[in-house]
Write a structure and sequence with these properties.
Belongs to the aldehyde dehydrogenase family. GO terms for molecular function: aldehyde dehydrogenase (NAD+) activity. One of its GO terms (cellular component) is cytoplasm. It is a single chain. The protein is of the alpha/beta class. It folds into 2 domains: about 5-210 and about 405-425, Aldehyde Dehydrogenase, Chain A, domain 1, CATH 3.40.605; about 215-400, 3-Layer(aba) Sandwich (Aldehyde Dehydrogenase, Chain A, domain 2), CATH 3.40.309. Helix content is about 40%, strand content about 15%. The strands form 5 sheets. It has a 6-stranded mixed sheet, sandwiched between helices. Strands 12-13-9-8-14-15 form a 6-stranded parallel sheet. It has a 3-stranded antiparallel sheet with strand order 1-2-19.
């Protein structure tokens, strides 16, 4: 089928108003849930092929999150779709004011390779729940998973509702056409290209990007728990996570203890290192060689391990990193954890504020005032106190970036908000018709001022 024909078929179907029916939307969500339930093992196997993810990690970080999104949408959709009545000012007495959520139309969803199931299907949940039609493209880098998703989605949905493109399709083809909304997850570089395309048509966008997410470990932190949770978060997908702790800012007085605990946790959580069958691999040879080169060029680091055959790299600490280190120039997206010591929290906060705004920020501290100060002074997309990554597990919280780490948010009810336009309606009555609105005389000005002040 010609791509233009796919877009036209979706536009025509959307214009028939069938997707706006709440029961229709629920049916699409249930279809999607059934599709996943019926193919959980296939999806896990595809993720193992692409990224060497264990079945447990695949379910925890990918499939279960999509289930959570579907269940949340089904639970909130009736209320979301109803008119929301608003207060009426005195000069509009007798009328009604309300808002309605309406879908945008045909949306384009572009998903990355690192969490291909979650980051393809979670936005799709929001798009369908809001009443849109959707064109989906997953990454060619995660070919096994993306090819499977293409097959499953196109077997589950009619083309006019959801169409999943071949992951190998030339992205330039996509940019030749107009969409009603674009949702992109990926790199800042491609995000800029998406915005440039969207600007031609004034198409609204959500950009879920990344950045160097800092983790503060203060002197009052529970060092054992901090190390345990940081290592767990960094080992997820072998560091190929947009909200992974990118670097550590640790109080000088607890640095040695922290490093000791981190090394202990690496041994506990991944005792066989790169020989661990369930430890994820780098997505491809290019990325593997990039991370390996970064480690090879660093002088002060802990012992590491590589497996060229499986593309696996052990979690490596850079123990004497600074903000000027080469590793601090761009997002790592791999199993490297630079550790930067600080003397005074205020100084390091100012340095972080001078950098690009990160997607996430994590704070380990028992001192509530210190935590509050970091949260209030540092701009970031979202984060945790005394934990890492787990803000994604709460679908009641919006997830998204700020500045260079992205724009817009989703998850839970926020996904429905993202894929909807809020339409304002003022419904007036013929029974009351204040003559003041028609008067051009100056003597009415005092009356108007008393009413509208």
């Amino acid at each position: 089928m010609i791509y233009q024909d796919i877009i036209n078929s979706q536009r025509n179907y959307f214009n028939s108003n069938k997707t706006k029916n709440v029961e229709f939307r629920k049916a699409q969500l249930l279809k999607l849930k059934h599709m996943i339930k019926s193919h959980e093992d296939d999806l896990c196997e595809a993720l193992r092929t692409d990224l060497s993810k264990s079945k447990t990690e695949s379910y925890l970080t990918e499939i279960s999150i999509v289930y959570s999104e579907i269940n949340s949408a089904l639970k909130t959709l009736d209320r979301f779709a109803r008119p929301s009545y608003k207060k009426i000012p005195l000069h509009l007495i007798g009328s009604l004011g309300y808002t309605l959520k309406e879908p945008y139309g045909t949306v384009l969803i572009l998903a990355p390779w690192n969490y291909p199931v979650q980051l393809t299907l979670a936005p799709l949940v929001g798009a369908l729940a809001a009443g849109n039609t959707a064109i989906v493209k997953s990454s060619e880098s995660s070919l096994a998973t993306s090819t499977l998703l293409q097959k499953l989605l196109n077997e589950t949905f009619p083309t006019e509702v959801v169409y999943c493109l071949d992951p190998k399709v030339d992205p330039e083809l996509l940019f030749k056409f107009k969409y009603d909304y674009i949702f992109f997850t990926g790199s800042e570089k491609i995000g800029k290209q998406i915005m440039a395309h969207a600007a031609k048509y004034l198409t609204p966008v959500t950009l879920e990007l990344g950045g160097k997410s800092p983790t503060f470990v203060t002197r009052s932190a529970n060092i054992t728990q901090a190390a345990k949770r940081i290592v767990w978060a960094k080992l997820l997908n072998a560091g190929q996570t947009c909200v992974a702790p990118d670097y550590i800012l640790v109080d000088k007085s607890v640095k040695d203890e922290f490093i000791e605990q981190v090394l202990d946790q690496i041994q506990r959580q991944c005792p066989k290192g790169v020989l661990e069958e369930t430890y994820p691999c780098m997505i491809n040879a290019k990325h593997y060689l990039r991370i390996k080169k970064l480690i090879g060029e660093e002088m002060y680091k802990t012992e590491t391990s590589f497996d060229d055959n499986t593309r696996k790299i052990g979690l490596t600490l850079f123990t004497h990193a600074t903000f000027n280190s080469p590793i601090m120039k761009e997002e790592i997206f791999g199993p490297i954890l630079p550790i930067i010591e600080y003397d005074e929290i205020g100084e390091v906060i100012e340095i972080v504020k001078s950098k690009a705004k990160p997607l996430a920020c994590y704070i380990f501290s028992k001192n509530k005032e210190v935590s509050k100060r970091i949260i209030e002074e540092v701009s970031f997309g979202g984060g945790c106190i005394n934990d890492c990554v787990m803000h994604l597990a709460n679908h009641h919280l919006p997830f998204g970036g700020v500045g260079q780490s992205g724009m817009g948010s989703y998850h839970g009810k926020y996904s429905l908000e993202t894929f909807s336009h809020t339409k304002s309606i003022q419904n007036n009555t013929y029974l009351i018709d204040l003559p003041l609105r028609y008067s051009k005389q100056d003597k009415t000005l005092n009356i108007i001022r008393k009413i509208m002040k």
